[in-house]
UniProtKB/TrEMBL annotation:
It comes from the Bacteria. Pfam families: TPR_19. This is Uncharacterized protein. It comes from Streptomyces hoynatensis. SUPFAM superfamilies: TPR-like.
Length: 122
């Protein structure tokens, strides 16, 4: 089996971004799996793959991938927010709230703050 070049990994990553934008998460996953296998430390590829899992409604896979990113980058606000959305979709609202609040604390973007619901009961 030939080892993919760094250039081909970049091309696959960019193509996967395009497929995700075009709402083809399964196509994106096909491109990203070999990139992540070749470069498991690549957080950007893992985040993109997690988003693809989420859009493909593969919530458990998305959750695990977002958690891997957060082990490496605990201050990644987007990863906390996306994990929270994944947990929320899986009806795990308590866990989701914690990650929404971490996202908002790390990056007080209006959408993160709104999702965190700091002023609400609960």
């Amino acid at each position: 089996m030939s080892h993919a070049s760094p250039e081909s990994n970049v091309i696959a990553y960019r193509a996967a971004e395009q497929l995700l934008a075009a709402r083809d998460p399964r196509g994106a996953l096909k491109l990203l799996d070999p990139v992540v296998t070749a470069h498991p430390e690549n957080t950007a590829a893992r985040l993109l793959r997690a988003r693809a899992f989420f859009l493909a409604a593969q919530l458990r896979a998305a959750e695990l991938e977002f958690q891997l990113v957060l082990e490496r980058e605990p201050d990644n606000a987007f990863a906390h927010f996306a994990l929270a959305r994944t947990l929320q979709r899986a009806s795990r609202d308590g866990e989701a709230r914690r990650h929404f609040r971490l996202a908002a604390a790390l990056d007080p973007r209006p959408d993160y703050v709104a999702a965190a619901g700091f002023g609400q009961a609960g």
